[in-house]
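Just curious: can you write a single protein's sequence together with how it folds?
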Amino acid sequence: MSAEPVKRLRVLIAEDETLIVCLLEDMLTQLGHTVVGEARKLHTALALAKTGDYDLAILDVNLNGRSSHPVAQIARERGKRVLLATGYGRPEDGAVVLQKPFGIEALSRCIHAVIEGGSSP
């Protein structure tokens, strides 16, 4: 497994699949990070993106059939890092993308890429 980021991150998760939320929470905890907010619907994700105290937002590209792009935009405007998760291929905005299905090593690599300002590994 790749090295963990030096800093422990506070992570916001926006994902509509409960099982994936549980897996992400477990993996993030194993990597030394803390989940500080969860959203399964777009309106909740928007509210948390605007007001939450987080370092990184992990966003499902498609939240119950709605694009999470507005959530990513808010997070970026606040100076937060964004990691997009999808099983549908790569979004075209140059973001780091975590391809579903994923394991802890892929998650760790993508977190590193986001923190380092690079592209998807």
